[in-house]
Amino acid sequence: MINTSIYNYVNVLDKAADASWTRNDVLSNNIANVDTPNYKRKDVSFQGYLQAELAGADTSTLQKRVSNIELGSINATTYTDMAYLSYRLDGNNVDIDTENVELASNQLMYQALMKSISNDFDMIKKAME
Q1: Range of the domain at 80
Q2: 56 pLDDT exceeds 80?
Q3: What is the number of structural domains in the chain?
């Protein structure tokens, strides 16, 4: 995390990329445990925290909203998804097709976040030239 207001947007993107990376690990772990009896699917919550922070900001532009975000309050959390639900007799609730779709979607999200971070640094670099 970079401690200056010029990088507020990059800091938020960095937090989102970290959350996406964590979610990639969690989804991969779900896939690895698809045949483990009594394993319960896990997922990562992040977008709701970010949306709540952005909604709480009383400003007109996204840049101003991002500058008012408390970065410490938008951390990704891992949780067990539907612990009471089982798709199979062995107690496991992981659906391999769903996990593969979620993993592919998350990888696209991560790539888009990395591209956005790269573009922001390119703009800052050009401004300094």
Answers
A1: 5-128
A2: no
A3: 1
